[in-house]
Amino acid sequence: MDMLFRDGLLEAVRMTDAEYEVFIELVHGPLGVRLGDGESAAIAIASRGAGIVVDEKRARRRVAEMLPALATVSSLRLVLTSAHRQNWTEREAAELVALARLHSRMGVPREDAPLLAQLMNSSPSAFISTLRALR
């Protein structure tokens, strides 16, 4: 993480008062609607940017309700797009995704399940075609 901060790829930010109110609303919502701290913080500050990376179904639904014009992508698509831009091999991308799912509990939204299956079981040419389609 230190390297990401140093290289300017990651930035720590503070919530404004208005964003903090959104955060509290999301964290303390009714059961079945309530979100975790991470998703709530990301959504609260998301209006500052052009997009958000979120995997959890409830969080994706809330983003669509609250910020319909905001681009929402999954962690899987972020990793695969980055891998493609860095000319990683299929194996390197698959290993990173497997490690993220194992150690970081990276979720995969239902609509991206076929993409994950293709990554883990496909031929290199099919995977490259998939990556090109993500652009």
Describe the overall structure.
- The chain has 135 residues and is mainly alpha-helical.
- The chain has eight helices and two strands, in the order αααβαβαααα.
- The model has no long low-confidence stretch (mean pLDDT 87).
**Portion in beta strands:** under 5%
| Secondary-structure element series | HHHEHEHHHH
Given the helix and strand composition, which structural class is it?
Answer: mainly alpha
Task: Round the mean pLDDT to the nearest integer and report it.
Answer: 87
Q: What helical percentage do the residues reach?
A: 55-70%
- Report the major sheet: 2 strands, parallel
> Spans of 5+ residues with little confidence (pLDDT < 50)?
none
Distance between the termini: 26 Å
Main β-sheet, spatial strand arrangement = 1-2
Radius of gyration: 16 Å
Number of helices: 8
Q: How many strands appear in the DSSP assignment?
A: 2
Mass-distribution shape: globular
Key phrases:
135 residues, mainly alpha, 4% strand, 8 helices
Write a brief caption for the model:
The chain is mainly alpha-helical and 135 residues long. It has eight helices and two strands.
Write the layout of secondary structure elements.
Elements: H1 2-6, H2 17-27, H3 37-46, E1 51-53, H4 57-66, E2 71-73, H5 75-85, H6 90-103, H7 113-121, H8 124-134
Helix pairs in contact: 2-3, 5-6, 5-8
